Amino acid sequence: MEITHNRRRWIREVLNPPEIGVLYTGNQGFLPDAPTNRQPSMLFVDLLNRSLGGVILRTKWQVDLETEFYLQIHNALEDIWETVKVRAKWANADPHRPGYHIIGVEFSTPEDTDQLPEVLHSARKIVPLPSDYESFSDWELFQAIPRTAVCAVLNALTFVHVKAGYRLLKTDTRVDTCYLIQSGSCILQVEKNGKLQPVGRLHPGDIAGEMAILDDIPLEMNVDAETDLELWALSRKRFDAICTENPELRSFLTTLLTRRFESANHHLRRMLTPYLITDLIGEGAHSLIFKGVHATLKLPVTIKMLKHEQALEKPLIDPLEKQARRISRLNHPNVARIYEVQHRYRTLFWISEHLSGEPLKSLLERWKKLPLNRVTHFLVQACRGLDHAHSQDISHCRLTPGNLMITTGDRLKIVDFMIGPRAEKLAAEDMDGQRYRAPEQAGTEVYDHRVDLFALGVIAYEMIAGKSITAAMPLEQLSDDPAFRQPGFPEILKRFVVKACAADPALRFGSAQQALAHLQALADHYGVPQEQPDGEQRKVATISLAFREKDQNALNQALEDFGTRISELDAEITGMDIDDL
Asked: Reduced to 3 DSSP states, what percent helix, strand and coil does the chain have, rounded to the nearest 5?
């Protein structure tokens, strides 16, 4: 915490992050987005700073100056809630959060200070109390709510009591409200062969009906109260309103969906039809990477999910989806294949071929520099992949060793193609990738596919020298670098690096095809395999079947006959029954 002195007589303590307080309005003042008959008698508020004489709080509540009300403040040292009576002394609009007010209040010491607000004596629970907040704070999902949005979420919850045996949610229906379970348990059931089959349970801290805020699709199973339940309801409308005011809350959707995929006890909750998500295998600044499998073809896939912080930016997501579908048309041995793009769960998913191997970045971290024949092999493959993409007017714009995957047999695959403003935004935010950006990317100049060739030149230097090109190393002096003076160093490779890394785009290779032609003699010398003709490339086709259970045996026979014919064509078909997963 930061301690500052101001013009007042008290030393004021700035609370970062803000602490939580509970404000008892006594029905004085009003909340703009609540109807007259539903004005709350208490609100959770952010405490921004405090002194011995008062506190500064942030809330949507509007109040007249000199109004007195009660405030509860959590004493972290003694783990108790202290109740004080305060008086509003000044109020300003919050310049950073439209609709919110910053209110300065002064502690008062009347005879009834120790009198608790009437709402605490109410036998009928309507809104969360401080004791409820303490329970919520221990739950993993609640901890995923950004601190700055906690009060807004607490103020949006409505208490619901449900008796044992009640069907809270019904399969194949759409819902607009989800429920945070405070006490009791629910049982999840699916229909199979006309009977209900239990597949799991929900306990305190879990959310029932998360589809209300994740996607407008029918529920895949029933949710029944196994015991009496104490629930807190949150509607999609209220959640979306909070997200508008507190965009950081969008990250909660990513956590909620990831938890669903990781901990789901039934395959229906891990489906991104027709794919089954099996494992979380990586996370970047803007996306999560899952391993999955095609549910019927048993084809392993990699599934990249855009985090909701970006996915809910409407001006960004529409062009991004169009760009992603355009990239999915790339089909080359040195470009990771994207099978399809799905817009589900309020975000984007890229389903691509699953690559077994490691990024070039990991290879360089382990070996520092690579043998020249291997360097040449990787550069030739990268040029082939870039040439294919550039021929379709698609540039990578943020090529680094991290998105060059090295697979079985040293096959290189370029991953994470992105085009348009999205690529520029990601590149600007990727501090680790700044050294691979061409000089023209740092300004307002228009740039083209030659930025990829610059990045490839920098990557080539790192593979050769075992170190990075830094700002202290002028590109004009690169030709005299000690890395190129070792005995027998190929002049072709030196000229490739120097030309690709030219600060002036006009002095670089004009195209990836031109760069490839420059390397061809060296590639022949090292025995780099020739590129397969287009007709020899293996392709993947997806077939989905919908059938009645009674036709299963006949269908199996038909697939067996089909598989025999397919194998005669030097192709392969794989399949699986979803119930075996």
From this structure: 35, 30, 35
Q: Is the pLDDT of residue 449 over 90?
A: yes
CATH number for the domain formed by residue range(s) 358-535: 1.10.510.10
Question: Would the CATH topology of 2-119 be identical to that of 134-245?
Answer: no
The answer to whether 451 and 390 have CB atoms below 8 angstroms apart is no
User: Per residue in 61-85, pLDDT tens?
Assistant: 888 898 888 898 887 777 888 888 8
Collapsing DSSP to helix, strand or coil, 276 comes out as strand
Q: What is the distance between the alpha carbons of residues 466 and 408, in angstroms, rounded to a whole number?
A: 23
User: What is the predicted pLDDT for the residue at 184?
Assistant: 97
pLDDT at 36: 52
Query: Residue type at 188?
Result: L
- Rounded distance, CA 248 to CA 236, Å? 16
pLDDT for 76: 72
The 8-class DSSP code of residue 335 comes to B
Pairing mode of beta strands 68-75, 167-169: unpaired
- Strands ordered across the beta sheet of 412-414: 357-359, 404-407, 412-414
CATH number of 259-353: 3.30.200.20
* DSSP helix/strand/coil, 379: helix
d(CA 188, CA 209): 11
pLDDT attached to residue 412:
97
| Fold held by 134-245 | Jelly Rolls (2.60.120)
Do the Cβ atoms of 261 and 281 come closer than 8 Å? Answer: no
What does the alpha-carbon distance between residue 565 and residue 410 come to, in Å, rounded to a whole number?
A: 33
Considering the four listed CATH numbers 1.10.3660.10, 2.60.120.10, 3.40.50.2000, 2.40.10.220, the one that applies to the domain covering 2-119 is 2.40.10.220
State how far the alpha carbon of 231 is from the alpha carbons of 161, 273, 297, in Å: 6, 31, 41
Q: What is the residue extent of each domain of the chain?
A: 2-119, 134-245, 259-353, 358-535, 549-580
Segment 162-177, tens digit of pLDDT: 999 999 999 999 999 9
pLDDT given for residue 560 in this prediction: 64
Peptide bond into 529 cis (omega under 30): no
The tens digit of pLDDT for each residue in 375-410 reads: 999 999 999 999 999 999 999 999 999 999 999 999
pLDDT of residue 419 exceeding 60, the answer is no
* Average pLDDT over all residues of the chain: 84
